[in-house]
Amino acid sequence: MDAFYFWKSRTEFIRFFYAEGSKGFADVKYQIENGMPPFDDPPYSEDAEPPYLSEWLDAETAREVLGIACISMLSDSLKLYFRTLQERVIRFTFENRKAAFRDGFVPAYFAALGEILDTDWSDCPVDRDLIEQVVLARNRGQHSEDITSFDVRYDAAMIEKHPRPFFIGDDEMSVCTSEQGSLASLLMPTLKVSADGLTKALNEVDALAAWIEARMACADDWHQNRRPARPDSSRPEKL
After folding, report:
1. Distance (Å, rounded) from C-alpha 26 to C-alpha 56?
2. What pLDDT is recorded for position 96?
3. What residues have CB less than 8 Å from 103, skipping those under 6 apart?
């Protein structure tokens, strides 16, 4: 099975989905900011707030929700890719799955594939920290805590693990950490997935999948070195 082909199909779709989905929201904001139809005839109001502020905020919130949805798809796709490598391409199992996945599926598969592909990952030109943050962002984005807002905020555990979070606006970075790297505020920063942030994350995981694909011959060597005299080829090998 060509897992890399299906992986690329998924990331290409996520790029398309975000680009096309965000166009409408950007158009609404542009039309409001420039007084274009249908926002060119605001009703009379003595309120000090700008006309169509609610519509502008809805468009901005919709774009942010779209970003979270795309990060969720990216995280789920990464998990499916790793599982496909495990079950249908390389064929291996974990001796103690519960222990292996204690810190999440990304560290578990990095450890397993490191052994199989004969690498300590120092020669892999990807940001593993960012890849882990993709999964954490997905997990956080799926569990809202406040009915009054669609905002997704980091929690203390995420900031402690990643003191300089990737999916955050520049204006909130100073809220995250003090000079010593400890929590600077009880108000956790908002998790924001910008177009540039999503592109960077997609590029990073694409690079990881391409790098793994290029080393797949090492998996054959790993099987050869572990194969008994009369192997049962129907059973995945254990790490």
Report:
1. 9
2. 92
3. none
Paired tokens of 22:
């965000």
pTM, two decimal places: 0.88
Query: What kind and span of H or E run contains 8?
Result: helix 3-33
Tokens representing 150?
């669609």
Residues 83 and 233: their CA atoms lie apart, in Å, by 19
Tell me: the pLDDT tens digits for 108-158? 999 999 999 999 999 999 999 999 999 999 998 887 778 888 888 888 888
Query: What CA dihedral angle connects 44, 46, 50 and 56, to 10 degrees?
Result: -60
**Separation of alpha carbons 3 and 89, rounded Å:** 7
Is residue 17 within 8 A of residue 199, CB to CB? The reply is: no
Q: Which among 207, 200, 209 is positioned nearest to 168, based on CA atoms?
A: 200
